[in-house]
Amino acid sequence: MMNETQNIEEIFGKNVFTVGKMRERLPKSVFKEVKKVIAEGGELSKASADIVAKAMKDWAVENGATHYTHWFQPLTGITAEKHDAFVTHPDEEGRTLLEFSGKELIKGEPDASSFPSGGLRATFEARGYTAWDITSPAFLKEDATGKILCIPTAFCSYTGEALDKKTPLLRSEEALSEQAIRIVRLFGNTEAKRAIPSVGLEQEYFLIDREKYLKREDLIFAGRTLFGAPAPKGQELEDHYFGAIRERVGAYMRDLNIEMWKLGVPAKTQHNEVAPAQHELAPIYENGNVAVDHNQLVMETMKKVAGRRGLTCLLHEKPFAGVNGSGKHDNWSLVTDNGVNLLDPGLTPNENIQFLLVLACIIKAVDTHAALLRQSAADVGNDHRLGANEAPPAIMSVFLGDQLEDVVRQLVSTGEAKKSKKGGKLMTGVSTLPDLDRDATDRNRTSPFAFTGNKFEFRMVGSADSVAGPNTTLNAIVAEAFCEAADVLEKADDFELAVHDLIKEYFTDHQRIIFNGDGYSDAWVEEAKRRGLPNIRSMVESVDALVSKESVKMFEKFKIFTKAELKSRAEILYETYSKTINIEALTMLDMASKQILPAVMSYTGELAQTILSVKEAGADASVSAGVLKEVTGLLGEMKKAMERLEKDVAAAAAMKDGKKQAFYYKETICEDMTALRTPADRLEKIVDKEYWPFPTYGDILFEV
Ligand code: ADP
Ligand code: MG
Description:
Blueprint: H1 8-11, H2 19-25, H3 28-40, H4 46-62, E1 65-71, E2 84-85, H5 102-106, E3 107-108, H6 120-123, E4 128-132, E5 139-143, E6 146-157, H7 166-186, E7 195-209, H8 210-213, H9 217-222, H10 247-262, E8 267-272, E9 278-283, E10 286-287, H11 288-306, E11 311-314, E12 328-336, H12 349-368, H13 370-376, H14 402-414, E13 419-420, E14 424-425, E15 449-451, E16 456-458, H15 468-489, H16 495-510, H17 522-531, H18 539-542, H19 549-557, H20 563-616, H21 622-653, H22 658-686, H23 697-701
Parallel strand pairs: 1-6
Antiparallel strand pairs: 1-2, 3-4, 4-6, 5-6, 7-9, 7-10, 7-11, 7-12, 8-9, 12-16, 13-14, 15-16
Helix pairs in contact: 7-15, 10-11, 12-15, 12-16, 13-15, 20-21, 20-22, 21-22
The chain binds adenosine-5'-diphosphate (ADP) and magnesium ion.
Magnesium ion binds near residues 202, 329 and 457.
């Protein structure tokens, strides 16, 4: 493995059926048809689909593939695959011919009955269909199974209800494109046919020793530690962030990069993160749909590759209490097919006004749908970050930086913004709008939604979560704002005046969402409350926003989700929450009764013996007696907490209403879990290390 080539050019995309490979392998006319469908949508003819399927299969088989699969993203948040070998029924001579038809490429019919559907299946059809997504390239997955040709697909019910995360994402990209084109047309862009989101995802993760991982049930079952006292050292010295990468971690990063490059994922940046044992990988941005697929591959490969170096990769948002958790930064911009980034302030005045309108629309969208956008980043693990004094806060706000905020202030207060802070003055097409300098924005690590030069960075997303949801929501709310702006401006008699007024109106009405200060401070919580911004502290509290009247109306208007699809997702969110906390609670009970209690009891036995011997020898045993008393006191506390947790878990399991149950888990079970953890963590600090039944934070975080 060490000798494997590091020539990036040679290995990049090796396992991908790229556009380049299609160009080589397909007849010109078919290739043209494929390119057209990728760029403009629509369907391949049956004859062409057969030709593409054959070329794809030949390429895969030449490269050692034995099976193919429709690779999809059910509502579990991870990916699903069911392999079929290319073999066909043996002929008379006993040979098998390898076949793969256009029909098999385009449509699949996996048994969908065991995926979460949130009631969609009951009301519609039991069957689920997978449909080829031609815009995301097929690839070869290479592992112990061999080589599997993976075809990215959407997953729907017979009647077309989306049972997955890709379908709504694709729908949202289409809606956004359509509305964005209306906007650029207003500014004289007649060439662009589509606008596509560019998405760059920074992925954080923890890397720990596999042997130690296997000694902790909580890591195995819950992906995070449910017990654990802080180590004497945490992240306070700030010596891990960007620090020199240790050998074993470096070897892992190297393996990971090679796998990612082979899969055509442009893995670029790697570094140590803030918490000990925490790291980050950031690929270069790609078009939204592909970036979302690639992030699934990144997460999966991160876990897979770790085993090779005796490591385990944790993607949970909060594997360890007391040090930073992990997130995912969703860098998002919008680019037309003729190369204009709508979030680039641009060089000419014309672009500049367009930029200000786009910015105003996004501000309006985020303010109008703040709760919904917050919801899109909610998952069970993320509750430990958002709203729990960790980056970023649960309150949605937008960071614009000094220069842009100044422009907005001028526009709002005087109706004009003739100068910009750094760029000096500039007469634009409309004399009341300033020039903008894209390097004039600074950084703010506490903002959940920050403008960073030519893109927004949505920083709330959880590290283990699928980014399909957050991007679907973001695309949808911006599409709506673009649509409303275009409705007004297309009818305007005096466009220049109308666009000026609209920008001013949007900034004025929605300026409350702009916040450039410290998002972690208590003062901001108060200030946000005064401004009327929602502060949704948990996942279960966020779900309502998904099925609110406004959300349903918006998603239905742009044909992204039906009401039934939204309700199904809400149901699944509650269910997932309850099930996850239930697993955590049961794991705690198991560890407490089978590991911690016995260990502590053995230790108290030894202590008691010691006390007796010391006394017999006529010496003072008061220190040992004091320790014994403290330990048995904590043991009693633990036992009481265990009994309560056990009783409440049974009560939770009996609840029928999904929403009520989820709230009960959040309010009662989580509290019980804390009550159990507290004495156990105290005990860890007192009990002889020889007795402690599993590796501690110190063992895990500092010994990779
Ligand atoms: P940071 O300093 O926050 O790490 P980077 O410039 O390194 O910012 O970018 C982080 C991510 O944002 C990378 O994935 C990068 O490719 C992506 N990115 C850069 N420009 C854009 C853009 N215009 N649209 C979307 N993503 C972008
Ligand atoms: Mg960043």
